[in-house]
Amino acid sequence: MPYPKPTLKRQTFNFNTFDEYAYDNRDRTAHRQHGNRKRKKEKQQRKEVVAALTDLQDNIAEWVPTYCASLDPQHHERQWVIDSIGPFYRDNIVTDVVSIVKGGKEANVYTCLAHPATGLSHIAAKLYRPRMLRHLKNDAVYKAGRTLRDAEGKQIKGRREKLALQQKTKFGKEVDIQWWIGNEFRAQQTLYAAGADVPQPIAHIGNTILMAHIGDGFRAAPTLSETGIVRGEAQPLFNRIMDNIALMLENHLIHGDLSAYNILYWDGEITIIDFPQMVEARHNPHAFDLLQRDIQRVADYFARYGVAADAQELALGLWQPYMGRDF
Ligand SMILES: Nc1ncnc2c1ncn2[C@@H]1O[C@H](COP(=O)(O)OP(=O)(O)O)[C@@H](O)[C@H]1O
Ligand SMILES: [Mg+2]
C-alpha cells in the first residue's frame, strides 16, 4: 500500500487588507508594553518583599532581650538565648526575655514577656541544650515501641535518617534531639486538649518549646520539691495528681519521670511539667513499671504529709481496667 504523501501546508497571512494588518500589529505592541509593565511591577514587588524580610532579620540581629543585656557579651548563653527565642520574637509571640527560671542538665527555662496578641502576660521558654543527649543514655527504655517521628510529627521513613540515628552521627543526633522535643510538645498538646493540669503549649521551633508560664511576673511557681504544702491540702492534691495520671493513661500516655521535681505548685494548685520521656502505654514493654514508679515517687512525697497510699495497688487499679479495654 502506498504511503500517503504528507500534505505540506504553507503558512499564509490571513490579513485581507493592509489596515487590518496594521491594527493587529498595534495590538501586539500594546500587549508587549502591558507585559513589560507587569514584569516591572512584579520585580518591584519582589524587591519590596526582600527588603521587608531583610528588615525583619536585621530586627532580630539587633534584638538584645533584657536578660541577655545583663550577661557578658562573650558569654555563650547570651547568643544561645537570642538565637533560640529570636524566631518567636520575629513572629510576635514573645517581646522580651526577662529572667532565667532554672538552668538544668538538659534544658534552661526562661521567663519571657508575651506579645499582647497571645492574650498572655508571660510565657515560659524551655531551651534544650545541644548536649542533652548525653544525659539521655537510657532512652531505649522510653523509646521502645515508638515510631520514629521528626519535629513536625511526621513518621521518619528515610533510610538516611534511620541510619544516621543508629550510627549516632552529628546529623543523627540532630534528628534525635528534634524527635525528643517534638515528642514533648505533642504529648503536652494531647494532654492539654484532654483537660490535664499541664501548661498550655504555645509553639516550638528548633530546640525551644514555648508554654504558659506558671507563677506571676515576679516569680515562677516552685516545684513541690521546693515548697511545703499544708497538711490539709495534701490528700486533695494527691488525688488530683492521681486523676491526672489516670487521664494520661486514658490518652495512652505515661509520664515516665513524674515526681515532686516535675510538679509545680501555685495558688493551691498543681501543674505537671517535663514530658520528653513520656511513653506510649500500648506499645512500650516497660509501661507498667514506669507507671508504678511514677505513682511511687509521688506517694513518697505525700507520705510526709500523712497521705497513705500503696503505689503498687494504685498502679494495678489503673492498669488492669486499662488493659482490659478494647483498643
Ligand atoms: N511552664 C513553666 N512555668 C514556670 N516554670 C517552669 C515551667 N516549666 C518549667 N519550669 C521550671 O523550669 C524547671 C525545669 O523545667 P523542666 O521541664 O522540669 O526541665 P528539666 O527538668 O528537663 O530541666 C522546672 O523545675 C521549673 O522550675
Ligand atoms: Mg524536670
Give an overview of the whole structure:
The protein is of the alpha+beta class and 327 residues long. It folds into two domains: 61-212, Phosphorylase Kinase, domain 1 (2-Layer Sandwich); 224-323, Transferase(Phosphotransferase), domain 1 (Orthogonal Bundle). It contains nine helices and nine strands. The strands form three sheets. Strands 1-2-3-5-4 form a five-stranded antiparallel beta sheet, with helices on both faces. A two-stranded antiparallel ribbon has the order 6-9. Strand 2 (107-114) and strand 3 (122-128) form a beta hairpin. Helix 1 packs across helix 3 and helix 5 crosses helix 6. The longest helix is centred in the first third of the chain and has 45 residues, at 18-62. The radius of gyration is 30 Å and the shape is extended. The N and C termini lie far apart (72 Å). It binds adenosine-5'-diphosphate and magnesium ion.
Question: What's the SSE blueprint?
Answer:
Elements: H1 18-62, H2 66-69, H3 76-90, E1 94-103, E2 107-114, E3 122-128, H4 139-143, H5 159-167, H6 170-194, E4 201-205, E5 208-212, H7 231-250, E6 253-254, E7 263-266, E8 269-272, E9 279-280, H8 287-303, H9 311-323
Antiparallel strand pairs: 1-2, 2-3, 3-5, 4-5, 6-9, 7-8
Helix pairs in contact: 1-3, 5-6, 7-8, 8-9
The structure holds adenosine-5'-diphosphate and magnesium ion.
Magnesium ion (MG) is lined by residues 261-262, 274.
